[in-house]
Amino acid sequence: MSHFAQLMLPTFQDPRGSLTVLDGALPFTPVRTYWIYGADGQTRGGHRHQHTRQALVAVAGLVTIYMNDGVTSENIVLDRPGQCLLVEPKDWHTMTFGSGSVLLVMSSHPYDRSEYLDTPYEVK
């Protein structure tokens, strides 16, 4: 069981393929949505936020998210399109991309660079 909140999004499968639904699943209304791709083997992120909440979904491939809330740290593997990780403002996070991965990110606030906190928590 993970310390960090994850959602299993409703997914419907039949011989024609799979369909995952996001409608009403998030605990916030996304105002910014983007996806990261072409980052094979790269680590991105390395920050936390003052106010912004995020929801992360690996819609293709595998992305390992390192999370640290100042008390607990954990690596969470996102490898199913129906798996959604919630990133709270206090959560320092990095994202390491597997080959061919696409990470969908939904944010509760618009982009504002001044809202980012770039100093990681001290290792105890």
Q: How does the major sheet shape up?
A: 5 strands, antiparallel
Number of helices: 0
Determine the strand fraction and express it as a percent band: over 45%
The gyration radius over C-alpha positions equals 14 Å
Mean pLDDT: 96
- Separation, N- and C-terminal Cα atoms: 23 Å
| Secondary-structure element series | EEEEEEEEEEEE
Count of strand segments: 12
Regions with little confidence, pLDDT below 50 for 5+ residues: none
Q: Shape from CA axes?
A: globular
Question: In order across it, which strands form the biggest sheet?
Answer: 1-9-6-11-4
Approximate helicity band: under 10%
Q: What structural class is derived from the secondary structure elements?
A: mainly beta
